[in-house]
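Notebook entry, structure prediction.
Reason for the run: the old model in the group folder had no record of what sequence produced it. Starting over properly, with the input documented here first.
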Amino acid sequence: MRRKVRMIKKLKEKRIARERIRVLFDKAEAVFSNNPSLANRYVTLARKIAMKVNVRIPRDLKKKYCKHCYKFLMPGVNCRIRVKDKTIVCYCFNCKKYMRLPLKGYKTKSEKQNQKTA
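New structure, fully documented this time:
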């Protein structure tokens, strides 16, 4: 009986943690234009919550902060995003490092042309 109660409690904690992480990233996005350091603090708090409760940060939110310096990224303001050879290349202006993310479902121009002719 105790094991079941403990398991339910853990699942509830993880659900709450995921919600808080989403809220923190939403707040970071809203606040970034006025106060970038506060946005970076929100990302730090979200990461700490994820580590404490042992929850993964959702994939769509992982792309919103730098993997090296953990700063919130806003395309065009403090990062540059390019698409190259089926990958998204994100360059952080804070730490001057690149992040490469795979791009699924993307076809190059030559693949599109080959598909049209076939």
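Summary: The radius of gyration is 19 Å.
The old model has been moved to the deprecated folder.
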